[in-house]
Design brief:
The complex is a heterotrimer of chains A (237), B (290) and C (412). Chain A has helices at 43-50, 73-79, 96-103, 113-123, 125-129, 140-152, 170-185, 197-203, 221-226, 228-233; strands spanning 5-14, 17-27, 32-36, 56-63, 66-67, 81-84, 158-162, 189-194, 206-211, 214-220. With 237 residues, chain A is of the alpha/beta class. Chain A folds into 2 domains: 5-80 and 157-233, Rossmann fold; 87-148, no CATH class. In chain A, strands 6-7-8-3-9-10 form a 6-stranded mixed sheet, with helices on both faces. In chain A, strands 2-1-4-5 form a 4-stranded antiparallel sheet, with helices on one face. Chain B has 11 helices and 2 strands. Chain C is α/β, with parallel strands linked by helices and 412 residues long. In chain C, strand 11 (380-384) and strand 12 (387-392) form a beta hairpin. The longest helix of chain C has 20 residues, at 53-72. The radius of gyration of chain C is 21 Å and the shape is globular. The chains are: A alpha/beta (237), B mainly alpha (290), C alpha/beta (412). Chains in contact: A-B, B-C. The interface between B and C is medium-sized, with 27 and 30 residues.
């Protein structure tokens, strides 16, 4: 069976400062795949290049048997590839509901906007209470919920999440990962980019480690957790 | 004496409403795309010529020429942004500056070639009609222009708040990365913003065509006034543009009466400097860094 | 004397007629006419575009008419025009260009600022400059030796004009005690505005000038200036304008329902121009002005008007066209006497000018030591039924004055 997402030898960057060097990655339908690495390793560039926001310099990106390497960002979203961007990137002076509705405005999802909105509120009851509040006035955890909800409104097949736990309290972090696990159990494929190695590898079936724009280690999460290099570099053991 | 000041104040507010419409267009373009449209005054003058031309060649009333100006300028703005403006979106500021200045010069030159440099004025019986309110005489044409301008601003504000495309424009102005991330067609949104911005300027031009003599060289005045209003009222704030327009219109009128007609601009610029010093985000602008 | 002979005559016939002493049927020229071998290159500087294009083009029409009429008489003039675009600083550039292209005598430049600028170039190149229209007094006060002005300075226009205004009959509601001056804020406007105030005081009219309000030449909106004028409550409004601002001022007065006893603009362009009367229709009537004008009672004026009516039926012959015409008459006259195209010969001939028969009202055209023609008369004009008519002095009058002004609202 062909993978849902398949990246072959992808490079991207500007003027000799490459942020990705020959990265290859696959994700099968129903999987959660983790991409971990430190600051500046290239994780956000990876997400943005896949999403069509950053141009690639060489390599290929395939999603559902379609070559999306040169595709425009809105076309990629229409195909079912959604994003929870790093730092949330909400629209701070619009209401929670407006933020969510904008996420669902794509052709693939606009006719089911009402139902999708109900589902998001079901998943995040706190957002329903705050539906008319300006997104910029919410707490960090609530904003993350909006960001995830906004991506879900597009009825995606695959969601890329860029550091969803960043800046959240430990309780919120746990709740976040619980939600992500639940979404995966419900059938959503997830590409999870994180600095938090333990939690993300616990959730994922497989993982990739990015260092200095290159994939240095890859494998099943269980194996990675036992790997000495990872234990020393990222787990401080 | 009270009649004199009241008359001048009302006149100032009325023309201020039209200025506010011009500034609203500039504000929208800046708010959504972070681009300063240095050709904005030229678009206003283009609208004035549409107003004049519609009257001179076809005998159309102002209401029709305003609609015509709106359609023509929207189309022009949309196409300009899609074909040219969007290519400059990622280029440095000075490249964008050159682009818009070039557009301004091309428009001015084109209008001068097509219509000649001599002033064109609309002479109709309507030019003289006034509404009498007590002992006050209010110029009917100015009042109609002011009410129309206010109406357009209100309609635009409602559209931005309640329609999905309007919210997409707001979203793009608040967080462009977020917009791209969720698949908003940014090319299209930018083009709509420019189209609406140009349409505002064009409508304002068609509204003032019956009031002033149209020449190709009025544009610099309008661009400057729009800038002052946008800065005084608050960048990317629609109510700010309205407030700023009214204030500047009023200030210009009162300056002319209290000091000297040549002092009109003096007070406006003084106000601009004061705002920049003490409240740089503008009267209704938000503290959020734009 | 037959006008048909004048129109159908060929150059040769005229020479023969002149030789046989019937020169009186043609244009006033010195009795001896020798066929000139080369044409005189004349450079004419005018604002043909921009805010001053209306009067500039009117001057050009009069100039061209004279070139044609004198050409029919055998005077070979090769005229080139340079456009100042209504910018005073372009006067010098225009003059220099025309001189480079071979002009040995210049005419110009309508606007006082451009005239002074052109005079500097003419002085440097030692080329005579005949001023067609230009009223700033300083034009002849700067010591230009090459300059010959066939137009009165505004101080003189205002002084002579207001003197006639003073003699207008009071009564019937016309007894002004106060006035307000509105003037355009440029070289011409400031000079004339100041002159008006000074003359009103000097001649003791008993009319108090309450305020002098200036406005920017490029102003699009004069509502505040007119509101200020109205607030003074003055009986008389004295606007010193160009044609566009005159139209704006009257329109604002109508909108604000400001009905003074009279509107009188001494030495002011605008009210007598066709664009003004066309734009305002019945609202243009009864506006008064004192400007040099043609004397409709003279034979030569009638001749010129007749030819104008034939060639330019849709335009009005007014002071701009008139002085444009006379500027060519002065040049043609000097050329004929000098019998040379050299600038210094023309200069000497110009100094000796003494033309008795000319269309504009006043004594003979002659230039004093400063190059000024001091014999120009200043009739008092009033718009009536859509065109300016002379109402004073009585000898040249074509109609009776209508005062006080009919209220705007009462004009059918």
């Amino acid at each position: 069976m062909t993978p849902l997402l398949s990246i072959k030898n992808l490079s991207a960057g500007y003027h000799g400062a490459l942020a990705l060097i020959k990265v290859s990655l696959t994700l099968n339908e129903g999987e959660t795949v983790a991409v971990v690495g430190g600051n500046g390793a290239g994780k956000t560039t990876l997400i943005r290049t896949i999403a069509g926001m950053v141009p690639s310099t060489c390599g290929e990106i395939w999603f559902q048997n379609a070559d999306i390497t040169q595709a425009r960002n809105d076309v990629i979203c229409e195909l079912g590839l959604a994003q929870v961007p790093e730092g949330r990137q909400l629209f701070p002076d619009l209401s929670v509901e407006d933020n969510l509705n904008l996420g669902g405005a794509l052709k693939r999802s606009r006719h089911s906007r009402r139902q999708n909105l109900e589902r998001v509120f079901g998943l995040f009851p706190r957002l329903q209470e705050r539906r008319r509040q300006m997104a910029g006035t919410l707490s960090g955890g609530e904003q993350q919920m909006v960001a995830i909800g906004r991506a879900l409104m597009a009825e995606p097949k695959l969601v890329m999440m860029d550091e969803p736990s960043l800046g959240l309290s430990p309780i919120m972090v746990e709740m976040m990962f619980e939600t992500i696990a639940q979404l995966n159990r419900d059938g959503l494929s997830i590409l999870l980019v994180e600095q938090n190695v333990t939690e993300s590898l616990a959730l994922a079936t497989r993982g990739y480690v990015l260092e200095n724009a290159e994939v240095v280690i890859e494998g099943r999460s269980a194996d990675l957790l036992k790997d000495d290099r990872i234990r020393r570099a990222y787990l401080g053991l | 004496m009270i009649e004199l000041y009241a008359g001048v104040a009302i006149n100032g507010l009325m023309i201020g409403a039209v200025y506010a419409l011009v500034a609203t267009g500039l504000n929208l373009i800046f708010g959504v795309m972070r681009v300063v449209n240095f050709a904005h005054g030229e678009i206003v003058v283009g609208g004035m010529y549409i107003g004049y031309g519609a009257w001179a060649l076809l005998g159309l009333p102002t209401s029709v020429s305003v609609a015509l100006a709106a359609i023509v300028m929207f189309g022009f703005g949309y196409c300009f942004q899609r074909l040219i403006g969007n290519q400059f979106a990622n280029r440095p500021q000075h490249a964008q500056f050159v682009l818009y200045i070039s557009l301004a010069l091309i428009i001015t030159g084109g209008l001068a070639m097509a219509f000649g440099p001599d002033p064109r004025s609309i002479q109709s019986a309507a030019s003289f009609s006034v509404y009498k309110i007590g002992s006050l005489r209010v110029d009917a044409t100015r009042l109609q222009a002011a009410l129309s301008a206010a109406g357009v601003i209100l309609a635009l504000w409602l559209w931005l708040r309640f329609s999905l495309t309007g919210k997409a424009l707001q979203a793009a102005s608040q967080n462009i990365i977020g917009g791209r991330a969720i698949g908003i067609r940014i090319d299209h949104v930018f083009a709509i913003a420019t189209g609406i911005g140009f349409a505002c300027a064009g409508i304002a031009g068609a509204l003032i065509a019956p009031l002033y003599d149209t020449t190709p060289y009025l544009s610099a005045d309008f661009t400057l006034i729009a800038f002052i209003i946008v800065i005084v009222g608050g960048l990317a704030s629609l109510p700010g543009a309205m407030l700023g327009g009214l204030i500047i219109g009023l200030v210009e009128g009162l300056a002319a009466i209290l000091f000297d007609p040549s002092a009109k601009s003096l007070l406006s610029y003084g106000l601009l400097i004061a705002i920049l010093l003490f409240r740089p985000m503008g009267l209704l602008g938000k503290r959020r860094a734009l | 004397m037959t006008e048909s002979k004048f129109y159908s005559t060929t150059r040769r016939n005229l020479l023969m007629a002149g030789a046989s002493g019937l020169i009186g049927s043609g244009l006033p020229m010195p009795a001896v006419l020798r066929a000139q071998t080369s044409a005189l290159k004349v450079g004419v500087i005018l604002p043909l575009s921009g805010v001053l294009s209306f009067p500039g083009i009117a001057t050009q029409r009069g100039t061209d008419l004279a070139v044609r009429m004198f050409g029919d008489e055998g005077v070979k003039l090769e005229v080139s025009y340079a456009d100042t675009e209504s910018k005073p600083e372009n006067g010098r550039l225009a003059a220099e260009k025309l001189i480079r292209d071979g002009a040995t005598i210049l005419i110009g430049a309508w606007d006082s600022g451009a005239t002074i600028s052109a005079a500097q170039a003419a002085e440097a190149a030692k080329v005579p400059l005949v001023v067609n229209v230009g009223s700033a007094p300083q034009i002849t006060e700067q010591g230009f030796t090459q300059l010959f002005r066939n137009f009165p300075p505004s101080s003189e226009i205002v002084a002579k004009g207001v003197a006639l205004f003073k003699d207008l009959p009071r009564g019937n509601g016309f007894d002004p005690k106060s006035a307000v001056v509105l003037h355009v804020n440029d070289t011409f406007g400031q000079a004339t505005g100041g002159a008006v105030k000074a003359v009103f005081e000097k001649l003791g009219l008993g009319i108090n000038i309450l305020d002098v309000i200036s406005y920017d030449a490029r102003a699009r909106d004069l509502s505040i200036e007119v509101a200020k004028a109205k607030a003074t409550g003055a009986d008389l409004v004295l606007p010193i304008t160009r044609v566009n601002d005159a139209i704006l001022i009257v329109r604002e007065m109508i909108k604000q329902d400001y009905n003074p006893m009279a509107i009188y603009g001494p030495s002011s362009p605008g009210p007598y121009e066709k664009a003004f009367t066309d734009a305002l229709g019945k609202f243009a009537d009864e506006y008064m002005t004192s400007v040099p004008w043609y004397d409709p009672t003279t034979e030569i004026a009638k001749k010129v008007l007749a030819r104008w009516a034939k060639d330019q039926p849709n335009d009005r012959f007014e002071l701009n066209s008139g002085f444009g015409w006379e500027s060519i008459q002065v040049v043609a006259d000097a050329f004929t006497r000098a019998k040379s195209t050299k600038s210094e010969d023309l200069h000497a001939a110009l100094k000796a000018t003494n033309i008795k028969d000319h269309p504009m009202a006043g004594g003979p055209i002659a230039f004093d030591a400063k190059g000024q023609n001091t014999n120009i008369a200043i009739p008092l004009l009033q718009n009536q039924k859509g065109a300016p008519v002379v109402i004073a002095p009585a000898a040249a009058a074509g109609a009776k004055v209508k005062l006080p002004m009919t209220k705007w609202a009462d004009r059918a």
